[in-house]
Specification:
Blueprint lengths: L11 H26 L19 H12 L2 H17 L1 H20 L4 H31 L3 H12 L11
Helix pairs in contact: 2-6, 3-5, 4-5
Length: 169
């Protein structure tokens, strides 16, 4: 007696279709799991100070405002931003060098408190200088807005937009 058994395999298109189906099912399950098991932290935090206490709140509001402006007006505003950014290059460079020096000091002499304090003071000074230039940029940006644009900017600042997959109720 001869035993003739043939091994049947699924066609290739079926395997591909099943793989795609599995991937989509895992994506949907992951999105639902993210909705329920990972809390969402929007820009407007629920703390006592809300979004206005975040260090980048005014910067993000300005970015969102830029997308609401017309192309010509956006180009005018970019001119102001470019001018200030070019003025901030030395402060940015000084801050980067100060932070690198601090990192090297911490790496080479982790127990030397006086060297750390000295480098930390340099970093704070560089950050303060950059903050002054950044504040001048923000001030000039807001001053150059029209009354309607300022109102829109204030609305964005008070109620910042945020992305999310599912709407929270």
């Amino acid at each position: 007696m001869t035993d003739k058994t043939t091994k049947r395999t699924a066609p290739r298109w079926m395997k591909i279709l099943l793989t795609i189906s599995l991937a989509l099912n895992l994506l949907i399950i992951g999105a639902i799991g993210a909705k329920f098991f990972r809390p969402y932290y929007p820009m407007h935090s629920k703390g006592p100070h809300g979004a206005l206490a975040r260090p980048d709140a005014m910067y993000k509001a300005g970015r969102h405002l830029m997308w609401k402006l017309t192309r010509e007006r956006r180009q005018e505003m970019f001119q102001i931003v470019r001018m200030h950014r070019s003025n901030m290059q030395t402060e940015l460079s000084n801050l980067a060098k100060a932070r690198l020096a601090l990192a090297k000091t911490i790496t080479s002499q982790p127990d030397n408190q006086s060297a750390f304090d000295q480098k930390w003071g340099i970093v704070k000074t560089a950050e303060t200088a950059l903050l002054k230039k950044s504040n001048a940029l923000t001030s000039d940006f807001i001053k150059s807005l029209t009354a309607d644009e300022r109102k829109t900017y204030a609305e964005i600042l008070q109620n910042p937009p945020h992305r999310q997959w599912f709407k929270r109720r």
